[in-house]
Amino acid sequence: MLDTKRLKLLREVARQGSFSAAADALYLSQSAVSQQIATLEREVGARLLDRTRSGPKLTDAGRVLVRHADAVIARLDEAERELDALAGLEGGELRMASFATASAAILTEAISVFHGRHPRVLLSVTEAEPEQALPKLLAGEIDLALVFDYAWLPGEPSRDLDHRLLLEESMSLVMPATHPLASRERVRVSDFSDSDWLCGARPSSCGEIVIRACREAGFDPRIGFESDDYNVLQGYVAAGLGFTLMPEIALINLRSDLVARPIVPEGPKRRIWASSRADGARSLATDAMLGILDEIGSGFATAAGSRRLAAA
Q1: Structure pTM?
Q2: Number of structural domains in the chain
Q3: pLDDT single digits (tens) 12-28
Protein backbone atom coordinates (compact mmCIF):
# COMPACT_ATOMS: atom_id res chain seq x y z
CA MET A 1 0.00 0.00 0.00
CA LEU A 2 1.31 3.43 -0.94
CA ASP A 3 2.22 5.83 1.86
CA THR A 4 -0.03 8.91 1.79
CA LYS A 5 2.73 11.05 3.30
CA ARG A 6 4.98 10.27 0.33
CA LEU A 7 2.10 10.99 -2.06
CA LYS A 8 1.73 14.42 -0.45
CA LEU A 9 5.47 15.00 -0.88
CA LEU A 10 5.29 14.13 -4.58
CA ARG A 11 2.33 16.45 -5.08
CA GLU A 12 4.11 19.28 -3.29
CA VAL A 13 7.30 18.88 -5.36
CA ALA A 14 5.19 19.05 -8.53
CA ARG A 15 3.39 22.15 -7.25
CA GLN A 16 6.52 23.99 -6.08
CA GLY A 17 8.70 22.99 -9.04
CA SER A 18 11.72 22.20 -6.85
CA PHE A 19 12.79 19.92 -4.02
CA SER A 20 14.03 22.82 -1.91
CA ALA A 21 10.78 24.80 -2.18
CA ALA A 22 8.74 21.70 -1.35
CA ALA A 23 11.02 21.04 1.65
CA ASP A 24 10.51 24.61 2.90
CA ALA A 25 6.73 24.38 2.49
CA LEU A 26 6.61 21.14 4.46
CA TYR A 27 9.25 22.12 7.05
CA LEU A 28 11.57 19.29 5.99
CA SER A 29 15.12 19.09 4.76
CA GLN A 30 15.73 18.84 1.03
CA SER A 31 17.56 15.54 1.49
CA ALA A 32 14.57 14.09 3.38
CA VAL A 33 12.25 15.03 0.51
CA SER A 34 14.61 13.51 -2.07
CA GLN A 35 14.93 10.28 -0.08
CA GLN A 36 11.16 9.91 0.34
CA ILE A 37 10.53 10.49 -3.38
CA ALA A 38 13.18 7.90 -4.23
CA THR A 39 11.50 5.43 -1.87
CA LEU A 40 8.13 6.11 -3.50
CA GLU A 41 9.59 5.47 -6.96
CA ARG A 42 10.95 2.12 -5.76
CA GLU A 43 7.51 1.22 -4.35
CA VAL A 44 5.81 2.14 -7.63
CA GLY A 45 8.50 0.60 -9.79
CA ALA A 46 8.65 3.61 -12.11
CA ARG A 47 10.33 6.98 -12.33
CA LEU A 48 7.94 9.69 -11.17
CA LEU A 49 10.04 12.80 -11.73
CA ASP A 50 12.43 13.85 -14.45
CA ARG A 51 15.24 15.82 -12.82
CA THR A 52 15.81 18.61 -15.37
CA ARG A 53 17.90 21.75 -15.16
CA SER A 54 14.73 23.83 -14.80
CA GLY A 55 13.55 21.64 -11.94
CA PRO A 56 11.78 18.30 -11.43
CA LYS A 57 8.98 17.49 -13.89
CA LEU A 58 6.33 14.81 -13.51
CA THR A 59 6.64 11.82 -15.79
CA ASP A 60 3.54 10.16 -17.23
CA ALA A 61 3.57 7.77 -14.26
CA GLY A 62 4.02 10.72 -11.91
CA ARG A 63 1.03 12.55 -13.39
CA VAL A 64 -1.19 9.46 -13.01
CA LEU A 65 -0.10 9.01 -9.42
CA VAL A 66 -0.58 12.68 -8.50
CA ARG A 67 -4.05 12.67 -10.06
CA HIS A 68 -5.08 9.76 -7.87
CA ALA A 69 -3.22 11.20 -4.89
CA ASP A 70 -5.33 14.34 -5.16
CA ALA A 71 -8.50 12.26 -4.88
CA VAL A 72 -7.16 10.15 -2.02
CA ILE A 73 -5.90 13.13 -0.03
CA ALA A 74 -9.14 15.03 -0.59
CA ARG A 75 -11.13 12.10 0.82
CA LEU A 76 -8.81 11.81 3.79
CA ASP A 77 -9.13 15.54 4.44
CA GLU A 78 -12.92 15.17 4.27
CA ALA A 79 -12.77 12.29 6.75
CA GLU A 80 -10.67 14.39 9.14
CA ARG A 81 -13.18 17.23 8.94
CA GLU A 82 -16.06 14.86 9.67
CA LEU A 83 -14.18 13.39 12.64
CA ASP A 84 -13.46 16.88 13.94
CA ALA A 85 -17.16 17.68 13.57
CA LEU A 86 -18.11 14.60 15.56
CA ALA A 87 -15.62 15.49 18.27
CA GLY A 88 -17.16 18.95 18.50
CA LEU A 89 -20.77 17.62 18.37
CA GLU A 90 -21.17 19.37 15.02
CA GLY A 91 -22.41 16.23 13.30
CA GLY A 92 -23.00 12.52 13.75
CA GLU A 93 -25.98 10.55 15.00
CA LEU A 94 -27.47 9.50 18.32
CA ARG A 95 -29.80 6.48 18.22
CA MET A 96 -32.06 5.93 21.22
CA ALA A 97 -34.79 3.65 22.51
CA SER A 98 -37.31 4.32 25.26
CA PHE A 99 -40.48 2.94 26.79
CA ALA A 100 -43.67 4.92 26.30
CA THR A 101 -44.11 6.77 29.60
CA ALA A 102 -40.47 7.86 29.71
CA SER A 103 -40.69 9.01 26.09
CA ALA A 104 -43.66 11.23 26.88
CA ALA A 105 -42.45 12.63 30.20
CA ILE A 106 -38.64 12.68 30.06
CA LEU A 107 -37.20 11.99 26.62
CA THR A 108 -39.22 14.57 24.70
CA GLU A 109 -37.89 17.31 26.99
CA ALA A 110 -34.35 15.91 26.76
CA ILE A 111 -34.50 15.87 22.96
CA SER A 112 -35.65 19.49 22.90
CA VAL A 113 -32.77 20.59 25.14
CA PHE A 114 -30.22 18.49 23.22
CA HIS A 115 -31.36 19.80 19.85
CA GLY A 116 -31.06 23.36 21.11
CA ARG A 117 -27.48 22.75 22.21
CA HIS A 118 -26.30 20.45 19.40
CA PRO A 119 -28.57 21.03 16.39
CA ARG A 120 -26.25 19.28 13.90
CA VAL A 121 -26.45 15.88 15.61
CA LEU A 122 -29.11 13.66 14.03
CA LEU A 123 -31.41 12.14 16.67
CA SER A 124 -33.61 9.07 16.27
CA VAL A 125 -35.85 7.23 18.76
CA THR A 126 -37.56 3.87 18.67
CA GLU A 127 -40.07 2.68 21.25
CA ALA A 128 -39.05 -0.47 23.10
CA GLU A 129 -39.58 -2.11 26.47
CA PRO A 130 -36.40 -2.92 28.45
CA GLU A 131 -36.54 -6.54 27.30
CA GLN A 132 -36.07 -5.37 23.71
CA ALA A 133 -33.96 -2.23 24.26
CA LEU A 134 -31.06 -3.74 26.21
CA PRO A 135 -30.25 -6.46 23.63
CA LYS A 136 -30.28 -3.75 20.93
CA LEU A 137 -27.86 -1.71 23.02
CA LEU A 138 -25.51 -4.66 23.49
CA ALA A 139 -25.64 -5.40 19.76
CA GLY A 140 -24.68 -1.81 18.91
CA GLU A 141 -27.99 -1.12 17.14
CA ILE A 142 -28.68 1.87 19.42
CA ASP A 143 -26.48 4.16 21.52
CA LEU A 144 -28.67 4.87 24.55
CA ALA A 145 -31.80 3.37 26.11
CA LEU A 146 -34.24 4.50 28.77
CA VAL A 147 -35.27 1.42 30.71
CA PHE A 148 -36.96 0.64 34.01
CA ASP A 149 -36.99 -1.98 36.70
CA TYR A 150 -38.34 -2.36 40.23
CA ALA A 151 -36.38 -2.64 43.45
CA TRP A 152 -38.40 -5.80 44.07
CA LEU A 153 -37.50 -7.14 40.61
CA PRO A 154 -34.05 -5.71 39.74
CA GLY A 155 -32.72 -6.04 36.19
CA GLU A 156 -29.84 -8.30 35.24
CA PRO A 157 -26.44 -6.53 35.47
CA SER A 158 -24.08 -6.46 32.49
CA ARG A 159 -20.39 -5.60 32.65
CA ASP A 160 -20.62 -4.21 29.10
CA LEU A 161 -23.26 -1.60 29.96
CA ASP A 162 -23.46 1.39 32.26
CA HIS A 163 -26.79 2.15 33.97
CA ARG A 164 -27.37 5.66 35.33
CA LEU A 165 -30.29 6.07 37.76
CA LEU A 166 -32.45 9.00 36.65
CA LEU A 167 -35.52 8.67 38.81
CA GLU A 168 -37.12 6.48 41.46
CA GLU A 169 -40.92 6.57 41.52
CA SER A 170 -43.46 5.52 44.09
CA MET A 171 -46.47 3.53 42.93
CA SER A 172 -50.02 4.74 43.61
CA LEU A 173 -53.34 2.94 43.52
CA VAL A 174 -55.66 4.34 40.85
CA MET A 175 -59.44 4.28 41.33
CA PRO A 176 -62.54 6.15 40.13
CA ALA A 177 -63.02 9.52 41.81
CA THR A 178 -66.48 8.32 42.92
CA HIS A 179 -65.14 5.30 44.84
CA PRO A 180 -65.91 5.32 48.60
CA LEU A 181 -62.19 5.21 49.45
CA ALA A 182 -61.24 8.02 47.04
CA SER A 183 -61.49 10.60 49.81
CA ARG A 184 -58.69 8.97 51.81
CA GLU A 185 -55.19 10.44 51.59
CA ARG A 186 -53.68 6.94 51.58
CA VAL A 187 -55.08 3.47 51.03
CA ARG A 188 -54.06 -0.10 51.69
CA VAL A 189 -53.81 -2.61 48.87
CA SER A 190 -55.58 -5.09 51.16
CA ASP A 191 -58.66 -2.82 51.12
CA PHE A 192 -59.17 -3.99 47.53
CA SER A 193 -58.61 -7.72 48.03
CA ASP A 194 -62.13 -8.61 46.90
CA SER A 195 -61.94 -6.44 43.76
CA ASP A 196 -60.85 -7.11 40.19
CA TRP A 197 -57.37 -5.94 39.29
CA LEU A 198 -55.62 -4.71 36.15
CA CYS A 199 -51.95 -5.05 35.25
CA GLY A 200 -49.42 -4.95 32.45
CA ALA A 201 -49.53 -7.67 29.83
CA ARG A 202 -47.81 -10.77 31.19
CA PRO A 203 -45.15 -12.05 31.25
CA SER A 204 -43.61 -8.68 32.14
CA SER A 205 -42.28 -6.85 35.16
CA CYS A 206 -45.26 -4.44 34.97
CA GLY A 207 -47.63 -7.37 35.35
CA GLU A 208 -45.60 -9.14 38.03
CA ILE A 209 -45.22 -6.07 40.23
CA VAL A 210 -48.99 -5.67 40.66
CA ILE A 211 -49.36 -9.35 41.50
CA ARG A 212 -46.50 -9.21 43.98
CA ALA A 213 -47.87 -6.08 45.69
CA CYS A 214 -51.19 -7.85 46.17
CA ARG A 215 -49.52 -10.97 47.53
CA GLU A 216 -47.48 -8.82 49.93
CA ALA A 217 -50.87 -7.52 51.12
CA GLY A 218 -52.06 -11.08 51.76
CA PHE A 219 -54.10 -12.07 48.70
CA ASP A 220 -53.83 -13.29 45.10
CA PRO A 221 -55.38 -10.70 42.79
CA ARG A 222 -58.14 -11.55 40.37
CA ILE A 223 -56.76 -10.19 37.07
CA GLY A 224 -59.45 -9.30 34.58
CA PHE A 225 -57.68 -7.15 31.96
CA GLU A 226 -54.08 -6.56 30.95
CA SER A 227 -52.42 -3.77 28.97
CA ASP A 228 -48.96 -2.22 28.64
CA ASP A 229 -50.55 1.17 27.85
CA TYR A 230 -51.27 3.21 30.98
CA ASN A 231 -53.87 5.27 29.10
CA VAL A 232 -55.75 2.07 28.33
CA LEU A 233 -55.49 0.98 31.97
CA GLN A 234 -56.91 4.35 33.04
CA GLY A 235 -59.84 3.75 30.71
CA TYR A 236 -60.43 0.33 32.25
CA VAL A 237 -60.36 1.81 35.77
CA ALA A 238 -62.78 4.59 34.75
CA ALA A 239 -65.11 1.96 33.30
CA GLY A 240 -65.18 0.16 36.66
CA LEU A 241 -63.29 -2.90 35.41
CA GLY A 242 -60.76 -2.99 38.22
CA PHE A 243 -57.93 -1.25 40.07
CA THR A 244 -54.24 -1.00 39.36
CA LEU A 245 -50.94 0.52 40.48
CA MET A 246 -49.24 3.23 38.44
CA PRO A 247 -45.88 5.01 38.74
CA GLU A 248 -45.69 8.78 39.16
CA ILE A 249 -44.83 9.85 35.63
CA ALA A 250 -47.78 7.82 34.32
CA LEU A 251 -50.03 10.05 36.46
CA ILE A 252 -49.02 13.30 34.78
CA ASN A 253 -52.01 12.93 32.45
CA LEU A 254 -54.36 11.29 34.93
CA ARG A 255 -57.98 11.42 33.81
CA SER A 256 -60.18 13.90 35.67
CA ASP A 257 -62.60 11.13 36.69
CA LEU A 258 -59.83 9.14 38.44
CA VAL A 259 -57.74 9.66 41.57
CA ALA A 260 -54.38 8.18 42.54
CA ARG A 261 -53.61 7.50 46.19
CA PRO A 262 -50.30 6.53 47.82
CA ILE A 263 -50.38 3.10 49.40
CA VAL A 264 -49.43 2.05 52.94
CA PRO A 265 -47.33 0.33 53.90
CA GLU A 266 -45.10 1.76 51.17
CA GLY A 267 -45.31 -0.30 48.02
CA PRO A 268 -42.89 -1.07 45.19
CA LYS A 269 -40.77 1.65 43.62
CA ARG A 270 -40.05 1.85 39.90
CA ARG A 271 -36.56 2.93 38.87
CA ILE A 272 -35.82 4.62 35.55
CA TRP A 273 -32.31 4.21 34.15
CA ALA A 274 -30.37 5.66 31.24
CA SER A 275 -28.38 2.75 29.85
CA SER A 276 -25.43 3.01 27.49
CA ARG A 277 -22.33 1.13 26.53
CA ALA A 278 -19.53 1.25 29.07
CA ASP A 279 -17.41 4.38 29.41
CA GLY A 280 -14.81 4.46 26.63
CA ALA A 281 -17.22 2.92 24.12
CA ARG A 282 -19.59 5.89 24.14
CA SER A 283 -19.74 8.82 21.74
CA LEU A 284 -19.58 12.43 22.88
CA ALA A 285 -23.20 12.79 21.78
CA THR A 286 -24.21 9.96 24.12
CA ASP A 287 -22.35 11.57 27.02
CA ALA A 288 -24.01 14.92 26.27
CA MET A 289 -27.48 13.35 26.29
CA LEU A 290 -26.72 11.51 29.54
CA GLY A 291 -25.90 14.83 31.17
CA ILE A 292 -29.18 16.33 29.99
CA LEU A 293 -31.15 13.31 31.20
CA ASP A 294 -29.51 13.69 34.62
CA GLU A 295 -30.75 17.29 34.78
CA ILE A 296 -34.30 16.39 33.76
CA GLY A 297 -34.48 13.33 36.02
CA SER A 298 -33.43 15.46 38.99
CA GLY A 299 -36.18 17.94 38.14
CA PHE A 300 -38.82 15.21 38.04
CA ALA A 301 -37.57 13.76 41.33
CA THR A 302 -37.81 17.18 43.01
CA ALA A 303 -41.32 17.77 41.68
CA ALA A 304 -42.46 14.29 42.75
CA GLY A 305 -41.05 14.86 46.22
CA SER A 306 -42.98 18.11 46.50
CA ARG A 307 -46.20 16.37 45.47
CA ARG A 308 -45.67 13.65 48.10
CA LEU A 309 -45.05 16.26 50.82
CA ALA A 310 -48.19 18.14 49.80
CA ALA A 311 -50.19 14.93 50.07
CA ALA A 312 -48.73 14.08 53.51
Answers
A1: 0.69
A2: 2
A3: 888 888 888 888 888 88
